[in-house]
Write a structure and sequence with these properties.
The chain has helices spanning 11-20, 27-39, 53-56, 59-64, 76-88, 99-102, 106-114, 143-147, 161-173, 221-233, 251-257, 276-285, 306-312, 317-328, and strands at residues 2-3, 25-26, 45-49, 69-71, 92-98, 120-125, 154-156, 179-182, 187-188, 203-207, 212-216, 238-242, 245-247, 263-271, 291-297. It is globular, with a radius of gyration of 19 Å. A seven-stranded mixed beta sheet has the order 4-3-5-6-8-7-13, sandwiched between helices. A six-stranded mixed beta sheet has the order 1-10-12-11-14-15, with helices on both faces. Strands 2-9 form a two-stranded antiparallel ribbon. The protein is of the alpha/beta class. The protein is 38% helix and 20% strand.
Amino acid sequence: MINSSDSVTSGPETAAACAAAPPARATRDAFGETLQQLGSEHPQIVVLDADLSESTRSAMFAAAFPERFFQLGIQEANMLGTAAGLAATGKRVFCCSFSCFVTGRFDQIKVSVAYNDVPVTIVGTHSGCAVGPDGYTQMALEDIALLRTLPNMLVLQPADDLETVQMVEHLVTRHSGPAFLRLTRQKVPRLHDQRYRFVPGAVDRLRVGRELAICATGACVAGALEAAVRLEREGCSATVLNVPTLAPLDGASLAAALEGCDRVLSVEDHSVIGGLGSAICEALAERRPTHVRRVGLREFGESGATEALFSKHHLDGPGIYAEAKALLATRAG
């Protein structure tokens, strides 16, 4: 399914949309506010945290509904087991921590949550190298790769606050199985307008071009749009796809959205192994082999300012532009 939101188009229209857009916000903030708002209408919601509720923003829910919030301490494995047990009794459980810590307990996720097919949403904030000065030990660069291997795990990553709101609403009201919601600490600009509707599995086509396609997810989508605008000034049009559902990836829809593009650039704040780029390669190899260039981390992370790390790994607008030019310089084959 291709979800053409038409909320971000091209050239002057993009500039006008950006000028009218609200201030940039972290997706974790939108998550915390939305969960708190949904709490009164959905008494089955229960929230757990591993001593990071102020950072994950689950503290907003805790303040409004203390009887349905449990601070488990620095015990992520126990938190996941508790979450699975609560979900088995009919609760809709949100299990929150930094992504590197909670997905680091993969055995509990696999056996207690996924294998039992219970409605636990694992919320991983501070994802990717964007966590910046905290360094590699706090960075989740392998979390998508891990969670994508579980056959019933819905893996979501929003590109802005509006998409985050709609994802949380979907997880509370319509999704009945396990899920992983990957969020940012850094602020990201609003890319959609109120007409946008998140559809699980759908590819969100933000621009349509001919020379190449840039597929991005999460905080990298804004940079992909910036790169596409710069390419357009040089007479090169690029399709830009926001991929909010990383698993299960709808390969048929992806191939349809990339129709006519023989070169694809994937961009993600994650290892190039096992993440968005790998998922795209797997999907296209089975349908329409395509030249794919993957942009992401190819090494352990390091401490640094978020902007500096995004620049080093070509995850920002100028970096994505440079990677696109390099891809365009290659011969399609």
